[in-house]
């Protein structure tokens, strides 16, 4: 709480002496009946899961209710402090009967983005109104300007909320002459603080001359994106020029807007300024050296801009310097040693090169140093050895190398956070080393810590987060370490060779949000994990057995799990029908195990699910229709199972957000449902290796995401929430493209393919497919497609791989195919194509096998299509058929037998459709087996 806010509260208490309504009061006070009745009605319309209002009962005098504050003489209720009480529901108009209420604090409750009740504007006695983080939404009612006695107004909202509050006009502020603290937006002669951070300001009215900002000490306009909106009524130009009149400013925050001008020279006149934040803009030019005259500056934040650095070296009172995310290059300036008062230095996410200068060691007051994500090399000994007051050090994502020993940490008694991952460093300490520090946060990812498990970690009793992934550990986890995990909120020991069993401890990671032990050699059963865990990755181990005890553990407790990855293990058995309590799941990966049976219907309870991977198991029967309830699905991957039935039409009707649909290598049969064409966001469609028949739907041109080369708008990020500890995308997909199985992760949003190969599809290739000019791979091989290759195939400007092999296509290769400049893989073999192969750089550079099994000529084939002179045989031959001498009756009989045998086989196929289908299906499967034998031989 700021000193200004504290002053306001003290003044309120001075004007109105308060007592708590409790049985221990020195005075016998009876609650005013009308006010007690009003509070009871107010309670009825609130949801109170924490039972905060349990004492509010009609048979109990309201002066005995918890946290009701009243006047010690008049007994009127004056204050209702119910911040962070987990209330929801509605605010009832009965509050208007509390005519003497001066203090209302509902901060931190949840009213589900309903509008701010206009009834609050009729509570004329209010002097303190705190509604921040209450999840109100919509337009702020201008009627709040009726609260003329307000000293304090806070309507702050959640950052980045799509349903947050917004304001169109600010004229109503002129009705608040006593206001001293405004957290949203405000102005008046007595105004000391104006905070408008992340407030969606738009549509401002013209200037109001009566407003005076001469007393303003704090101005926070961050995160408003003024470049896309009207500038507030007291602004002129890109960076607000009229700020120069605010001569009392001590705190100025203009970060997170779209200012694209240069930094104004008039800023140097702010002689009282202590805090300056111009970060996350598009500022141009150099920072004026005149800012170096602001000798009272203590905190500077210039991040994500392009600016020079040297002007800060004369600011000897600087305590915090944050310059992350700029474009600074070259060595770290040695002149930083002049800032002897500096406690916090952040130079992260720049392009600094070379070693860490020894002069950094002269900053003896330094508490935190952040050099993450630069190109710094050399060692870190000078930092660890000299900065004895250092509490937080971040040197991750650099090129530091060499050995770090226990001697280097001898002066690091105060160290609380060490982030040093993604370097080439080796820790060389004895097995019985006890560090001088007690860390809260530690990340040594990609260090060399092995091969033994670092036992010194067990001495860190205050650890909250730990990352030691990819550290060459080849050992078993000691039991004392597992006991430590109950306090951790983040643990990452992935990508090592750690073996043994994960203990079956119900409270393991009881405080955790994130647990990642993937890519190790753990064996045994799945452990039971606390319901508090949000992110769990046990993939790529050797865990075995059933999943039932894990899924159904403590079914009376809702699970907070959002990400669950059990892929690439040896898990087996059927899935239990226990998914009802896992409704927060956002991503589920059970792929590459040995699960059997059907998918339980309760999986439809996962209404928040976006990513579903069940591939490479032995699931059978039909896809459960309850999946249609999972309307947020972006990925469905059930490849390489034994699912049967037709492809459900509800996939197209209900799952409109689908980007990836992978059903390959199952036993789906029937037609491709036209409803799939409704999936306009679809980028990967793989229905290969099934038993589908019929034609390819012409409506495929509705796949609008495939019709453009732009990347997907859908963020394939790890989770809907971000974390500084989780940076890699979790969503990856194995895709058959260019004749190979390729796994995409970071570039998955760029991949666009259709694979309908190895089915029994018939008819012609629709021209509409060629409208998908963002498609990279099109595979229609091993079907019974007929007709010509569409003439407009050259419109597919982004295609890299085409496979039409083993069909019954005829005619010539379209000349437009020579326009496919990105084409690197083509297979037209085993069709009935004729004529010359079109000339182009791409087509002639392909392997000749791409055209085998046709009647084609021209490069890259040996037959270059030249016309050869053929001499006719002029010798007259007499018909000797009647002579009986030269007639070879063996061949005559063979021809007759062939004709008879041909029609004996063909006639039933022509007359019976079912026999015809079964016959071709038999040939198809025989072909698969032959290809498999050939592949094994090679």
Automatic annotation (TrEMBL):
Residues 34-68 form the Leucine-rich repeat-containing N-terminal plant-type domain. GO terms for cellular component: plasma membrane. SMART domains: LRR_TYP. PROSITE patterns: LRR. The keyword Translocase does not apply. Belongs to the RLP family. Pfam families: LRR_1, LRR_8, LRRNT_2. This is Leucine-rich repeat-containing N-terminal plant-type domain-containing protein. It is a single-pass type I membrane protein. Coiled coil: none annotated. The chain crosses the membrane at residues 889-911. It is found in: Cell membrane. The keyword Transmembrane applies. Its main location: membrane. Keywords: Cell membrane, Glycoprotein, Leucine-rich repeat, Membrane, Receptor, Repeat, Signal, Transmembrane, Transmembrane helix. Residues 1-23 form the signal peptide. PANTHER family: LRR RECEPTOR-LIKE KINASE, LRR RECEPTOR-LIKE SERINE_THREONINE-PROTEIN KINASE FLS2.
């Amino acid at each position: 709480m700021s000193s200004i806010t504290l002053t306001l509260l003290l003044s309120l208490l001075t004007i109105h002496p308060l007592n708590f309504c409790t049985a221990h009061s020195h005075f016998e006070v009876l609650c005013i009946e009308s006010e007690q009745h009003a509070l009871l009605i107010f309670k009825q319309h609130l949801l109170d899961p924490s039972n905060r209002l349990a004492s509010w009962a009609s048979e109990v005098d309201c002066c005995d209710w918890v946290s009701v504050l009243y006047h010690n003489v008049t007994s009127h209720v004056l204050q209702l402090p119910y911040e962070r009480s987990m209330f929801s529901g509605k605010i009832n108009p009965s509050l208007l009967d509390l005519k003497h209420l001066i203090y209302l604090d509902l901060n931190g409750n949840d009213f589900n983005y309903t509008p701010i009740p206009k009834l609050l504007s009729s509570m004329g006695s209010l002097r303190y109104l705190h509604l921040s983080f209450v999840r109100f939404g919509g337009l702020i009612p201008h009627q709040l300007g009726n609260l003329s006695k307000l000293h304090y107004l806070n309507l702050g909202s959640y950052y980045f909320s799509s349903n947050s509050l917004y304001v169109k006009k600010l004229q109503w502020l002129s009705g608040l002459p006593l206001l001293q603290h405004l957290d949203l937006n405000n102005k008046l002669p007595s105004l000391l603080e104006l905070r408008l951070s992340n407030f969606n300001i738009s549509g401002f009215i013209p200037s109001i001359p009566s407003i005076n900002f001469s007393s303003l000490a704090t101005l926070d306009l961050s995160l408003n994106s003024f470049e896309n909106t009207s500038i507030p009524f007291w602004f002129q130009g890109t960076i607000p020029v009229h700020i120069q009149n605010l001569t009392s400013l001590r705190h100025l925050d203009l970060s997170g807007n779209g200012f694209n001008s240069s930094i104004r020279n008039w800023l140097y006149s702010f002689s009282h300024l202590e805090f300056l934040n111009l970060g996350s803009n598009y500022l141009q030019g150099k920072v004026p050296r005149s800012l170096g005259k602001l000798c009272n500056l203590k905190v500077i934040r210039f991040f994500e801009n392009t600016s020079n650095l040297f002007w800060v070296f004369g600011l000897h009172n600087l305590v915090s310097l944050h310059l992350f995310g700029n474009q600074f290059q070259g060595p770290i300036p040695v002149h930083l040693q002049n800032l002897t008062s500096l406690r916090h230095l952040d130079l992260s996410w720049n392009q600094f090169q070379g070693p860490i200068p020894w002069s950094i060691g002269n900053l003896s007051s330094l508490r935190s140093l952040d050099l993450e994500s630069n190109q710094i090399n050399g060692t870190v000994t000078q930092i660890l050895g000299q900065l004895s007051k250092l509490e937080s050090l971040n040197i991750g994502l650099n090129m530091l190398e060499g050995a770090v020993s226990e001697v280097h940490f001898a002066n690091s008694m105060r160290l609380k956070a060490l982030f040093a991952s993604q370097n080439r460093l080796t820790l060389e300490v004895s097995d019985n080393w006890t560090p001088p520090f007690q860390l809260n946060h530690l990340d040594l990812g990609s260090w060399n810590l092995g091969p033994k498990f670092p036992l010194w970690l067990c001495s860190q009793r205050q650890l909250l987060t730990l990352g030691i992934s990819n550290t060459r550990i080849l050992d078993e986890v000691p039991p004392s370490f597992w006991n430590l995990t109950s306090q951790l909120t983040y643990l990452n020991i992935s990508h090592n060779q750690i073996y043994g069993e994960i203990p079956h401890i119900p409270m393991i990671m009881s405080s955790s949000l994130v647990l990642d032990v993937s890519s190790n050699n753990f064996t045994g059963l799945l452990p039971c994990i606390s319901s508090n865990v949000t992110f769990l990755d046990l993939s790529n181990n050797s865990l075995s057995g059933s999943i039932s005890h894990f899924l159904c553990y403590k079914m009376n407790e809702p699970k907070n799990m959002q990400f669950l990855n059990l892929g690439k293990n040896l898990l087996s058995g059927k899935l239990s029908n226990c998914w009802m309590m896992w409704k927060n799941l956002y991503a589920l990966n059970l792929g590459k195990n040995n699960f059997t049976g059907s998918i339980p219907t309760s999986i439809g309870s996962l209404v928040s699910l976006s990513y579903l991977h069940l591939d490479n198991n032995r699931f059978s029967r039909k896809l459960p229709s309850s999946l249609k309830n999972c309307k947020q699905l972006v990925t469905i991957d059930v490849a390489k199972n034994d699912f049967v039935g037709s492809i459900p039409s509800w996939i197209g009707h209900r799952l409109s957000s689908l980007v990836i649909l992978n059903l390959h290598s199952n036993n789906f049969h029937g037609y491709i449902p036209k409803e799939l064409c409704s999936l306009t966001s679809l980028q990967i469609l793989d229905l290969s290796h099934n038993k589908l028949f019929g034609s390819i739907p012409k409506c495929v041109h509705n796949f609008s995401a495939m019709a453009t080369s732009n990347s997907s708008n859908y963020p394939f990020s790890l989770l809907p929430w971000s974390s500084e500890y989780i940076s890699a995308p979790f969503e990856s997909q194995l895709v058959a493209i260019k004749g190979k199985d390729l796994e995409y992760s970071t570039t998955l949003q760029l991949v666009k393919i259709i694979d309908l190969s190895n089915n029994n599809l018939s008819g012609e290739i629709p021209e509409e497919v060629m409208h998908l000019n963002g498609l990279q791979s099109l595979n229609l091989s091993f079907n019974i497609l007929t007709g010509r290759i569409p003439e407009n195939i050259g419109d597919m400007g982004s295609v890299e791989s085409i496979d039409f092999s083993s069909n019954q296509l005829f005619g010539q290769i379209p000349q437009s195919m020579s326009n496919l400049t990105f084409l690197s893989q083509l297979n037209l073999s085993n069709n009935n194509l004729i004529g010359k192969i079109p000339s182009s750089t791409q087509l002639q550079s392909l392997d000749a096998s791409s055209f085998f099994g046709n009647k084609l000529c021209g490069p890259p084939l040996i037959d270059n299509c030249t016309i050869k002179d053929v001499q006719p045989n002029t010798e007259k031959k007499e018909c000797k058929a009647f002579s009986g001498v030269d007639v070879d009756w063996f061949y005559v009989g063979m021809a007759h037998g062939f004709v008879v045998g041909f029609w004996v086989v063909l006639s039933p196929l022509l007359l019976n459709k079912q026999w015809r289908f079964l016959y071709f299906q038999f040939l198809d499967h025989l072909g698969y087996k032959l290809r498999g034998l050939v592949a094994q031989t090679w």
